[in-house]
Design a protein that fits this description.
The protein is α+β, with helices and mostly antiparallel strands and 162 residues long. Helix content is 36%, strand content 21%. It has an 8-stranded mixed β-sheet. The chain starts with 9 loop residues before the first strand and ends in a 10-residue tail after the last helix.
Length: 162
């Protein structure tokens, strides 16, 4: 039977060394911020989300890094549940504890990103506790304009069998 130590990451200096089956995720530190980096992976899936979550549990257990940063430079697609995972970390560790680093255009265009993240430095964004009210108002205006346009077109969506 393989020892639990063989599957758990261990720390050497500023970098966390992980077993070979988990080498697609690198963890480094910047002061009290643990920075997670999936490298050049563009499309994250459920397995990546599990790996991130398990790594966050490990980071949380050592109590040295109450803040996390996730490098998303190459990311184009994320699994559902990713944003919820970030919110859960923020709820446990307080406002200002979650950062997105170098998000690409795809990530910056995602609704959850536009609603909940503020730039705090070039290529660094912090998770807000509440959504941006101005953007919510803009989305409501767009939605009401779309509804008005559909109604004025004479289409009856209520009876369309959808």
């Amino acid at each position: 039977m393989e020892s639990d130590c063989a599957t758990r990451p261990y720390r050497r200096g500023q970098v966390t060394i992980v077993p070979k089956d988990h080498q697609r995720l690198q963890v480094s530190t910047e002061g009290k911020i643990a920075v997670l980096d999936m490298g050049t992976v563009e499309i994250w899936d459920g397995a990546d989300l599990v790996l991130l979550r398990d790594t966050l549990v490990e980071i949380r257990s050592d109590n040295r890094h109450p803040k996390i940063g996730i490098n998303m430079q190459h990311v184009k697609s994320l699994p559902s549940g990713f944003f919820g995972m970030l919110l859960a970390w923020s709820d446990k560790n307080g406002p200002g504890s979650v950062f997105i680093i170098s998000p690409g255009e795809s990530v910056r265009g995602m609704l959850w990103f536009r609603l909940f993240f503020d730039a705090v430095a070039p290529d660094r964004y912090v998770l807000r506790k509440e959504p941006k009210s101005r953007l919510i108002h803009s989305l409501e205006v767009v939605q009401s304009n779309e509804v008005a346009a559909a109604q004025s077109s004479g289409l009856d969506y209520a009876n369309a069998g959808c």
